[in-house]
TrEMBL record, chain B:
GO terms for biological process: proton motive force-driven ATP synthesis. Belongs to the ATPase A chain family. Gene3D superfamilies: ATP synthase, F0 complex, subunit A. One of its GO terms (molecular function) is proton transmembrane transporter activity. It comes from Bos taurus (Bovine). InterPro entries: ATP_synth_F0_asu (IPR000568), ATP_synth_F0_asu_AS (IPR023011), ATP_synth_F0_asu_bact/mt (IPR045083), F0_ATP_A_sf (IPR035908). GO terms for cellular component: mitochondrial inner membrane; proton-transporting ATP synthase complex. This is ATP synthase subunit a. The chain crosses the membrane at residues 6-31, 67-86, 98-117, 137-158, 164-184, 196-222. It is a multi-pass membrane protein. It catalyses: H(+)(in) = H(+)(out). Its main location: mitochondrion. Component of the ATP synthase complex composed at least of ATP5F1A/subunit alpha, ATP5F1B/subunit beta, ATP5MC1/subunit c (homooctomer), MT-ATP6/subunit a, MT-ATP8/subunit 8, ATP5ME/subunit e, ATP5MF/subunit f, ATP5MG/subunit g, ATP5MK/subunit k, ATP5MJ/subunit j, ATP5F1C/subunit gamma, ATP5F1D/subunit delta, ATP5F1E/subunit epsilon, ATP5PF/subunit F6, ATP5PB/subunit b, ATP5PD/subunit d, ATP5PO/subunit OSCP. The gene is ATP6. The keyword Mitochondrion applies.
Amino acid sequence: MASVVPLKEKKLLEVKLGELPSWILMRDFTPSGIAGAFQRGYYRYYNKYVNVKKGSIAGLSMVLAAYVFLNYCRSYKELKHERLRKYH
Amino acid sequence: MNENLFTSFITPMILGLPLVTLIVLFPSLLFPTSNRLVSNRFVTLQQWMLQLVSKQMMSIHNSKGQTWTLMLMSLILFIGSTNLLGLLPHSFTPTTQLSMNLGMAIPLWAGAVITGFRNKTKASLAHFLPQGTPTPLIPMLVIIETISLFIQPMALAVRLTANITAGHLLIHLIGGATLALMSISTTTALITFTILILLTILEFAVAMIQAYVFTLLVSLYLHDNT
Protein backbone atom coordinates (compact mmCIF):
# COMPACT_ATOMS: atom_id res chain seq x y z
CA MET A 1 0.00 0.00 0.00
CA ALA A 2 1.54 3.32 -1.02
CA SER A 3 1.89 5.94 1.70
CA VAL A 4 -0.91 8.48 1.55
CA VAL A 5 1.00 10.95 3.74
CA PRO A 6 4.08 12.32 1.95
CA LEU A 7 7.36 11.15 3.45
CA LYS A 8 8.50 14.63 4.31
CA GLU A 9 5.83 15.31 6.91
CA LYS A 10 6.02 12.05 8.85
CA LYS A 11 7.49 11.90 12.31
CA LEU A 12 10.35 9.48 12.95
CA LEU A 13 8.26 6.88 14.75
CA GLU A 14 5.79 6.72 11.85
CA VAL A 15 8.40 6.10 9.17
CA LYS A 16 8.59 2.52 7.98
CA LEU A 17 11.96 0.80 8.23
CA GLY A 18 12.43 0.55 4.48
CA GLU A 19 11.81 4.26 4.06
CA LEU A 20 14.31 5.21 6.74
CA PRO A 21 17.35 6.01 4.54
CA SER A 22 15.35 8.30 2.27
CA TRP A 23 13.77 9.96 5.30
CA ILE A 24 17.18 10.67 6.83
CA LEU A 25 18.55 12.01 3.57
CA MET A 26 15.64 14.35 3.26
CA ARG A 27 16.22 16.10 6.59
CA ASP A 28 17.42 19.68 6.58
CA PHE A 29 21.19 19.61 7.07
CA THR A 30 21.86 23.26 6.39
CA PRO A 31 23.41 25.25 9.28
CA SER A 32 20.10 26.93 10.02
CA GLY A 33 18.42 23.53 9.92
CA ILE A 34 20.84 22.08 12.43
CA ALA A 35 20.51 25.14 14.64
CA GLY A 36 16.75 24.75 14.47
CA ALA A 37 17.06 21.13 15.53
CA PHE A 38 19.13 22.05 18.58
CA GLN A 39 16.72 24.81 19.47
CA ARG A 40 13.73 22.51 19.21
CA GLY A 41 15.46 19.89 21.34
CA TYR A 42 16.40 22.44 23.98
CA TYR A 43 12.89 23.84 24.25
CA ARG A 44 11.39 20.37 24.31
CA TYR A 45 13.47 19.49 27.36
CA TYR A 46 13.06 22.90 28.98
CA ASN A 47 9.29 23.00 28.68
CA LYS A 48 8.90 19.47 29.92
CA TYR A 49 11.14 19.53 32.98
CA VAL A 50 12.03 23.08 33.99
CA ASN A 51 9.33 25.46 32.82
CA VAL A 52 6.61 23.82 34.94
CA LYS A 53 4.72 25.00 37.96
CA LYS A 54 6.46 22.74 40.46
CA GLY A 55 9.84 22.10 38.91
CA SER A 56 12.08 19.85 40.94
CA ILE A 57 15.81 19.24 41.15
CA ALA A 58 15.44 16.46 38.55
CA GLY A 59 15.41 18.96 35.71
CA LEU A 60 18.87 20.22 36.58
CA SER A 61 20.31 16.89 37.75
CA MET A 62 19.56 15.13 34.48
CA VAL A 63 21.51 17.77 32.60
CA LEU A 64 24.45 17.46 34.99
CA ALA A 65 24.35 13.67 34.84
CA ALA A 66 24.48 13.82 31.03
CA TYR A 67 27.40 16.27 31.29
CA VAL A 68 29.31 13.89 33.59
CA PHE A 69 28.59 10.98 31.24
CA LEU A 70 29.79 12.89 28.17
CA ASN A 71 32.99 13.90 29.95
CA TYR A 72 33.55 10.29 30.96
CA CYS A 73 33.19 9.21 27.34
CA ARG A 74 35.62 11.93 26.32
CA SER A 75 38.31 10.81 28.78
CA TYR A 76 37.73 7.06 28.51
CA LYS A 77 40.94 6.57 26.62
CA GLU A 78 43.05 7.76 29.53
CA LEU A 79 40.88 6.05 32.13
CA LYS A 80 41.12 2.66 30.43
CA HIS A 81 44.35 1.97 32.26
CA GLU A 82 42.79 2.40 35.68
CA ARG A 83 40.68 -0.71 35.61
CA LEU A 84 40.85 -3.18 38.48
CA ARG A 85 43.42 -5.71 37.36
CA LYS A 86 46.01 -7.86 39.05
CA TYR A 87 48.87 -6.59 36.87
CA HIS A 88 49.01 -3.10 35.42
CA MET B 1 50.60 8.11 38.51
CA ASN B 2 52.83 10.91 37.25
CA GLU B 3 51.38 11.26 33.80
CA ASN B 4 47.93 10.53 35.07
CA LEU B 5 47.83 13.35 37.55
CA PHE B 6 47.98 16.14 35.00
CA THR B 7 45.96 14.64 32.18
CA SER B 8 42.80 16.17 33.54
CA PHE B 9 44.23 19.63 32.87
CA ILE B 10 45.03 19.31 29.19
CA THR B 11 42.77 21.16 26.79
CA PRO B 12 40.12 18.72 25.58
CA MET B 13 40.24 18.19 21.85
CA ILE B 14 38.30 15.67 19.84
CA LEU B 15 39.84 14.59 16.54
CA GLY B 16 41.72 17.90 16.47
CA LEU B 17 38.59 19.99 16.98
CA PRO B 18 38.44 22.23 20.01
CA LEU B 19 35.95 20.63 22.35
CA VAL B 20 36.92 23.20 24.95
CA THR B 21 34.70 25.79 23.23
CA LEU B 22 31.63 23.69 23.97
CA ILE B 23 32.72 23.16 27.56
CA VAL B 24 33.22 26.89 28.09
CA LEU B 25 29.81 27.65 26.59
CA PHE B 26 28.01 24.94 28.58
CA PRO B 27 27.28 26.97 31.77
CA SER B 28 25.23 29.42 29.72
CA LEU B 29 22.69 26.62 29.23
CA LEU B 30 22.10 26.54 32.96
CA PHE B 31 20.94 30.15 33.20
CA PRO B 32 17.69 30.46 31.28
CA THR B 33 16.08 33.85 30.81
CA SER B 34 12.43 34.63 31.24
CA ASN B 35 10.56 37.82 30.51
CA ARG B 36 7.58 36.89 32.62
CA LEU B 37 6.78 38.51 35.92
CA VAL B 38 6.19 35.16 37.62
CA SER B 39 8.39 32.48 36.07
CA ASN B 40 9.23 28.91 36.98
CA ARG B 41 11.07 27.97 40.19
CA PHE B 42 14.44 27.63 38.54
CA VAL B 43 14.43 31.08 36.98
CA THR B 44 12.92 32.66 40.11
CA LEU B 45 15.67 31.24 42.29
CA GLN B 46 18.36 32.51 39.96
CA GLN B 47 16.82 35.95 39.72
CA TRP B 48 16.60 36.19 43.49
CA MET B 49 20.22 35.14 43.91
CA LEU B 50 21.38 37.57 41.24
CA GLN B 51 19.47 40.41 42.84
CA LEU B 52 21.01 39.63 46.21
CA VAL B 53 24.53 39.57 44.83
CA SER B 54 24.18 42.66 42.67
CA LYS B 55 22.69 44.70 45.48
CA GLN B 56 25.45 43.68 47.83
CA MET B 57 28.18 44.39 45.33
CA MET B 58 27.13 47.47 43.44
CA SER B 59 25.73 49.52 46.29
CA ILE B 60 29.09 51.11 47.10
CA HIS B 61 29.47 52.61 43.64
CA ASN B 62 28.19 55.90 42.33
CA SER B 63 26.14 56.06 39.15
CA LYS B 64 29.18 55.99 36.91
CA GLY B 65 30.52 52.85 38.54
CA GLN B 66 27.15 51.16 38.44
CA THR B 67 27.29 51.04 34.65
CA TRP B 68 29.64 48.11 35.18
CA THR B 69 26.94 46.04 36.89
CA LEU B 70 26.14 43.82 33.92
CA MET B 71 29.79 43.09 33.30
CA LEU B 72 30.56 42.20 36.89
CA MET B 73 27.45 40.11 37.38
CA SER B 74 28.18 38.08 34.26
CA LEU B 75 31.72 37.66 35.52
CA ILE B 76 30.69 36.32 38.88
CA LEU B 77 28.11 34.00 37.34
CA PHE B 78 30.57 32.66 34.79
CA ILE B 79 33.42 32.02 37.20
CA GLY B 80 31.08 30.62 39.87
CA SER B 81 29.31 28.22 37.56
CA THR B 82 32.52 27.13 35.85
CA ASN B 83 34.23 26.38 39.15
CA LEU B 84 31.25 24.49 40.53
CA LEU B 85 30.85 22.44 37.35
CA GLY B 86 34.52 21.53 37.63
CA LEU B 87 33.79 19.74 40.89
CA LEU B 88 31.73 17.11 39.06
CA PRO B 89 33.62 13.88 38.30
CA HIS B 90 35.65 13.76 35.09
CA SER B 91 34.81 17.31 34.07
CA PHE B 92 37.19 19.91 32.71
CA THR B 93 37.47 23.32 34.37
CA PRO B 94 38.41 26.13 31.99
CA THR B 95 39.52 28.38 34.84
CA THR B 96 42.48 26.12 35.55
CA GLN B 97 44.09 27.46 32.40
CA LEU B 98 46.17 30.56 33.09
CA SER B 99 45.59 31.79 29.56
CA MET B 100 41.90 32.09 30.20
CA ASN B 101 42.25 33.86 33.52
CA LEU B 102 44.73 36.32 32.08
CA GLY B 103 42.27 36.95 29.28
CA MET B 104 39.68 37.86 31.88
CA ALA B 105 41.87 39.81 34.27
CA ILE B 106 43.93 42.03 32.01
CA PRO B 107 41.16 43.68 29.97
CA LEU B 108 38.98 44.31 33.00
CA TRP B 109 41.79 45.79 35.07
CA ALA B 110 43.03 47.87 32.14
CA GLY B 111 39.52 49.17 31.53
CA ALA B 112 39.20 50.30 35.12
CA VAL B 113 42.62 51.98 35.22
CA ILE B 114 42.22 53.72 31.88
CA THR B 115 38.75 54.98 32.83
CA GLY B 116 40.23 56.41 35.99
CA PHE B 117 43.05 58.08 34.13
CA ARG B 118 40.83 59.57 31.48
CA ASN B 119 38.17 60.97 33.75
CA LYS B 120 40.08 61.86 36.90
CA THR B 121 43.69 62.19 35.82
CA LYS B 122 44.92 64.06 38.86
CA ALA B 123 43.22 61.78 41.36
CA SER B 124 44.49 58.65 39.60
CA LEU B 125 48.04 59.91 39.56
CA ALA B 126 47.72 60.87 43.19
CA HIS B 127 47.20 57.23 44.07
CA PHE B 128 50.87 56.61 43.52
CA LEU B 129 51.81 58.51 46.64
CA PRO B 130 50.14 57.84 49.98
CA GLN B 131 49.45 60.84 52.15
CA GLY B 132 52.00 62.02 54.62
CA THR B 133 55.16 60.32 53.34
CA PRO B 134 58.48 61.87 54.35
CA THR B 135 60.08 63.73 51.41
CA PRO B 136 63.25 61.60 51.00
CA LEU B 137 61.14 58.48 50.59
CA ILE B 138 59.00 59.81 47.73
CA PRO B 139 60.91 58.47 44.67
CA MET B 140 61.17 54.98 46.08
CA LEU B 141 57.56 54.92 47.11
CA VAL B 142 56.34 56.00 43.68
CA ILE B 143 58.27 53.12 42.15
CA ILE B 144 56.82 50.69 44.65
CA GLU B 145 53.29 51.89 44.07
CA THR B 146 53.73 51.61 40.29
CA ILE B 147 54.91 48.04 40.66
CA SER B 148 52.00 47.22 42.91
CA LEU B 149 49.62 48.69 40.36
CA PHE B 150 50.98 46.67 37.47
CA ILE B 151 51.01 43.48 39.45
CA GLN B 152 47.26 43.66 40.05
CA PRO B 153 46.10 41.86 36.87
CA MET B 154 48.78 39.21 37.26
CA ALA B 155 47.72 38.64 40.85
CA LEU B 156 44.07 38.36 39.85
CA ALA B 157 44.77 35.76 37.17
CA VAL B 158 47.36 33.72 39.03
CA ARG B 159 45.28 33.70 42.22
CA LEU B 160 42.31 32.12 40.47
CA THR B 161 44.39 29.63 38.48
CA ALA B 162 46.47 28.51 41.42
CA ASN B 163 43.57 28.06 43.80
CA ILE B 164 41.41 26.02 41.47
CA THR B 165 44.28 23.91 40.11
CA ALA B 166 45.64 23.20 43.57
CA GLY B 167 42.24 22.14 44.82
CA HIS B 168 41.66 19.76 41.93
CA LEU B 169 45.12 18.25 42.26
CA LEU B 170 44.63 17.68 45.96
CA ILE B 171 41.36 15.91 45.36
CA HIS B 172 43.03 13.64 42.78
CA LEU B 173 45.93 12.88 45.08
CA ILE B 174 43.92 12.19 48.20
CA GLY B 175 41.39 10.16 46.27
CA GLY B 176 44.18 8.07 44.81
CA ALA B 177 45.71 7.63 48.25
CA THR B 178 42.42 6.44 49.66
CA LEU B 179 42.05 3.85 46.94
CA ALA B 180 45.57 2.62 47.49
CA LEU B 181 45.06 2.36 51.21
CA MET B 182 41.81 0.49 50.90
CA SER B 183 43.60 -2.84 50.90
CA ILE B 184 45.70 -1.84 53.90
CA SER B 185 42.72 -0.50 55.90
CA THR B 186 42.62 1.30 59.31
CA THR B 187 43.82 4.59 57.91
CA THR B 188 41.19 4.39 55.19
CA ALA B 189 38.45 5.89 57.27
CA LEU B 190 40.63 8.80 58.23
CA ILE B 191 41.69 9.55 54.69
CA THR B 192 38.17 9.32 53.34
CA PHE B 193 37.09 11.76 55.95
CA THR B 194 39.83 14.12 54.91
CA ILE B 195 38.60 13.93 51.33
CA LEU B 196 35.13 14.81 52.43
CA ILE B 197 36.31 17.83 54.35
CA LEU B 198 38.56 18.89 51.49
CA LEU B 199 35.72 18.71 49.01
CA THR B 200 33.52 20.80 51.24
CA ILE B 201 36.21 23.39 51.62
CA LEU B 202 36.77 23.31 47.88
CA GLU B 203 33.13 24.08 47.35
CA PHE B 204 34.10 27.40 48.64
CA ALA B 205 35.37 27.85 45.16
CA VAL B 206 32.32 29.95 45.12
CA ALA B 207 34.05 32.10 47.67
CA MET B 208 36.80 32.25 45.11
CA ILE B 209 34.62 34.14 42.75
CA GLN B 210 33.67 36.41 45.52
CA ALA B 211 37.34 37.10 46.02
CA TYR B 212 37.86 37.64 42.30
CA VAL B 213 35.04 39.98 41.67
CA PHE B 214 35.51 41.76 44.92
CA THR B 215 39.15 42.46 44.29
CA LEU B 216 38.30 43.64 40.83
CA LEU B 217 35.62 45.74 42.35
CA VAL B 218 37.91 47.39 44.83
CA SER B 219 40.28 48.27 42.06
CA LEU B 220 37.50 49.68 39.95
CA TYR B 221 36.16 51.65 42.86
CA LEU B 222 39.46 53.20 43.79
CA HIS B 223 40.36 54.19 40.28
CA ASP B 224 37.11 55.29 38.88
CA ASN B 225 35.15 56.99 41.53
CA THR B 226 37.39 57.87 44.50
